[in-house]
Design goal:
Keywords: DNA damage, DNA repair, Hydrolase, Nucleus
Number of helices: 14
Strand content: 15-25%
Pfam family, one: AAA_33
GO molecular function: ATP-dependent polydeoxyribonucleotide 5'-hydroxyl-kinase activity; double-stranded DNA binding; polynucleotide 3'-phosphatase activity
Largest sheet: 8 strands, mixed
Shape: globular
CATH architecture of the largest domain: 3-Layer(aba) Sandwich
GO cellular component, one term: nucleus
Protein name: PNK FHA domain-containing protein
Distance between the termini: 54 Å
Helix content: 10-25%
Length: 524
């Protein structure tokens, strides 16, 4: 009889998940699994392990089917897995293997066909549960596992190669793809982990010269494909090891696997390097450099514009001198580049809150205020700090559930003699019209407060909230794009008594918060 059963992620996005004996275990989109796709429900699949028969029953709970050994399992249906069987938590995505410990005899699993059985090269040892932890009995949150010079935090957001490499005050930092290497195939994206070549013949010699001059060579690379399951940890690790061998100099590497604080242009990787991987030696920024191809360069001739600003902004956030690969390796003159439209360093905290300055709150004996602005433009903060303390009742779809409920709350509050603020994005005519008409039926004037915060400024605010640990849900770019596509500038003809512009005034708890806010957090 087995004593343990694990659900192991083939892409190593997370540590194996224990499936207790005869206790249903529901998995899906969560921090535990690192699954972020909305195709995957938070309650996607229920797994029930039976240690006596070494089987796991998978019952589909989410609307999008899972796949067990290549067979789709639809909503409400079940399928059985044996030792080493494969389940895709969402069909074609997030492959996991069932592993019993100790493993059942070969005869009991002879009829079980697994992906590894058909794809593993002859002679390669099958992965066991111990391969996921340096010490599986003692692995705890926050600890790291290390193999062959690689270390990975248990949440998998950062991979580090040669963490204990000798320290230096002079750092030559590099992006990887498009900076040190290009695809051998000539395609934009590599077709395999072997599809690469050194970008320029001058690269190895340049790195060797810097190394001989006392520089520590460090790669900082974004590899979000690991977090989404497009790439495997093992594949990227082997690729990087091959690249370093080809370059012929010692190199320390930091790999961001997701879209959080470690992803450039945010400086999580740099901070980890300073605090954990340079032996306590302070870096001399004036003597150090960073090189990358995501530099905000415009299109020129047949060459397309850079896909983002992330490398240039990463260097700017850290305080490093920045060079493109052409400038650094080929000694070309400084190349033209653009900066993002939104610059967080220029956000003015001294602006007046309202325009016009004569704006009064409350403006009438009884009134309704409709807020209009992007997600992350500061509406809810403004509402809670400037309106609710004055007795306004806040109606918000995110907390109440629907616009119909917002109207019901508005009508009840107005009858009780209370001001109301509609705290939603309200981008278009129809979304505002329903509240204006309801207020008119109550004989109450309506004002519109527009938040003068651009799309990118709002995206920056949302990213800042994520990094600073505030309790806010992540907002995808799709939501920002949808708001922009629906937006219609409010006018008095809609029935507003007046229209007020609200400026975004940042507030910080401390200097560290302000320092983070003033950094570039958006890569494009």
């Amino acid at each position: 009889m087995a004593t343990r059963c694990w659900l192991s992620c083939l892409a190593k996005l997370h540590p194996p998940i224990l499936l207790p004996h005869n206790q249903p275990r529901v998995i899906g989109r969560s921090k535990e699994t690192k699954i972020k796709s909305k195709r995957c429900s938070k309650s996607q699949v229920e797994l029930l392990a039976d240690y006596t028969s070494c089987t796991v029953t998978a019952r589909q709970l989410g609307p999008n089917s899972c796949t067990v050994n290549g067979q789709h399992v639809c909503y409400g249906s079940s399928a059985q897995l044996k030792h080493n069987d494969i389940i895709e938590v969402v069909s074609r995505e997030y492959k996991h293997r069932v592993e019993f410990d100790p493993a059942p005899s070969i005869s009991s699993t002879a009829n079980s066909t697994t992906e590894e059985d058909t794809t593993m090269p002859r002679g390669q040892k099958k992965r066991s549960i111990d391969d996921y932890f340096s010490n599986p009995k003692k692995a705890k949150a926050g600890e790291t596992s290390a193999t062959g010079g690689w270390e990975k935090s248990t949440n998998g957001d950062l991979l580090v190669y040669q963490k204990n490499m000798s320290s230096s005050e002079k750092i030559a930092g590099y992006d990887m793809d498009g900076t040190l290497i290009a695809t051998q195939s000539g395609k934009v994206f590599a077709t395999s982990y072997d599809d690469w070549k050194i970008l320029y013949s001058e690269v190895p010699g340049k790195l060797k010269k810097l190394h001989d001059s006392g520089y520590k060579i460090v790669i900082f690379t974004n590899q979000a494909g690991i977090g989404t399951g497009k790439h495997t940890v093992e594949g990227i690790q082997k690729k990087i090891e091959s690249i370093i061998q080809k370059l012929g100099v010692p190199i320390q590497v930091f790999v961001s696997t997701g879209k959080g604080e470690y992803r450039k242009p945010a400086i999580g990787m740099w901070n980890f390097f300073l605090n954990e991987a340079n032996g306590g030696v302070e870096v001399d920024l004036d003597k150090s450099i960073y090189v990358g191809d995501a530099a905000g360069r415009p299109a020129e001739g047949k060459k397309k514009k850079d896909f983002s600003f992330s490398d240039r902004l990463f260097a700017l956030n850290v305080g490093l001198k920045f060079y493109t690969p052409e400038e650094h390796f080929l000694d070309v003159k400084t190349q033209a580049f653009n900066m993002p439209d939104f610059d967080p360093r220029e956000v003015d905290a001294s602006l007046p809150l309202y325009d016009p300055l004569t704006t009064k709150v409350p403006g009438h004996k009884l009134e309704v205020i409709i807020l209009v602005g992007f997600p992350g433009s500061g509406k809810s903060f403004f509402c809670s700090t400037h309106l609710v303390p004055l007795g306004y009742v806040s109606a918000n779809r995110d907390t109440i559930g629907s616009w119909q409920k917002c109207i019901s709350l508005m009508e009840k509050s107005l009858k009780d003699g209370k001001h109301v603020v509609i705290d939603n994005t309200n981008p278009d005519l129809d979304s505002r019209k329903r509240y204006i008409e309801a207020a008119k039926k109550c004989g109450v004037p309506v004002r519109c407060f527009i938040f003068a915060t651009s799309k990118d400024h709002s995206r920056h605010n949302n990213k800042f909230r994520e990094f600073s640990g505030e309790d806010h849900s992540k907002v995808s770019d799709m939501v920002f794009n949808m708001y922009k596509s629906k937006y219609v500038e409010p006018t008095l003809k809609e029935g507003f008594h007046d229209i007020v512009k609200v400026n975004f005034i940042p507030h910080f708890k401390n200097k560290s918060e302000e320092k983070l806010y003033r950094m570039f957090l958006l890569e494009k």
